[in-house]
What we know:
It comes from Ktedonobacter racemifer DSM 44963. By secondary structure, the protein is mainly α. It has seven helices and three strands, in the order ααβααββααα.
Amino acid sequence: MQPVEEFRYLVLAAQREGNRLLTEALRPLDLTPSQAEVLRVLEEHQPLSLIALGDLLVCENGSPSRLVNGLVEADLVKRLPSATNGRMVTLTLTETGEEMATRVRAVEATLYEFITKATQGQSLSEGITLLWCLVEGRPGGEAIARRKRRAHEASEAL
């Protein structure tokens, strides 16, 4: 196996294993990893339009309307008419959605603890740099970059 092929499959295997762990941890909450990502993005950046939400998601390319519809039906997300554009809706978490986002954050913390232990003694910053080489300028990488920018801007505003 060539090193580049091994690297490709290791990235795929790591993503699948991480997703499997997250799926199992979210099962008691009756959420998928994609639904959990929507809740967490809304928790950190609400209110958002559907388009703005889609721009911040890694789990979904394009419009996340199907995901949002399920979360609205589960009373986790509410749609409100936009104050600036009558044709747009604004998405926010319901009270139940806020509680669920807090529970998702706890699940994520456990996953991050696992990753921290598994990578102990390794340079995460080198791995992050290497992975950015693969995703920069691609839809998933752009979503992460936008989220990082928004988080940075929010912390500067405080």
